[in-house]
Amino acid sequence: MPNTAVTQDAVNLAQHRAAELRQQLIAHPVYAQVHNLAGLSALMREHVFAVWDFMSLLKRMQQMASCCTIPWQPVADARMARFINEIVLAEECDEDGRGGYASHFELYLDAMAELMVDTNSIQNLLKGISQGADPYRLLDALPIQQETRDFVRTTLQIVRMGQPHEVAAAFFFGREDVIPEMFARISTSLEQQGASVERLKHYLQRHIELDGDSHGPLSRQLLDNLCGNDLRKQLEAAQAASRCIEARLKLWDGVCRAISTAATAAA
What we know:
Elements: H1 8-26, H2 30-33, H3 37-65, H4 78-93, E1 94-95, E2 101-102, H5 104-114, H6 120-130, H7 135-141, H8 146-161, H9 164-176, H10 179-190, H11 198-227, H12 231-266
Antiparallel strand pairs: 1-2
């Protein structure tokens, strides 16, 4: 951003824009469209990519708040390091509801398997990355919605190039702040399903509980600590928030189109 003075009015305007986008996201029609197994399957095939790329965002947060290098050094804020490491613990090896442990991504794959939803696209992405391929090129080759590709690219771009306050804004506004409300709406739609959705319900409920009760408020505090009284950082954080929410809105638009396509094919 050019080295010009940032005013409080500019910050307020950017924050207001992010708040407006958040309301659009919560009111998106996608939640009402997930009213049968075909619609749920279409959503999961695309949304699994957002479940996966969240971990890269979280790992960047872990690098920012705790020491992940050798030799180890003390961190500036042990409380924030503990908070991030607690989220990593929950996301990478949470209780799986069956007496074992699994990452939330693996829980989501289990839910897809329970409903016999095709996982080939996400599995091909993971296989290609494990072989050293460029994830951007891999995304281009997958049969997924363009909005899904763009969503993942937005996340990876912030992870790789974002300043700490921008990454924290993406983490809070783009994920922890909105996920409980979004997932609560999806969970309500699940009550209309005829098939077993036990694994998906478990996944959604864990996020509603964790993000709403502790992860959301603490991630907001981390963002506030990183921005402080710096108006430029506050502005850039609000702009990053809007970018992430806009990407999610478009992701849901793509899911709506996928659901419509599935419904037409089934007719």
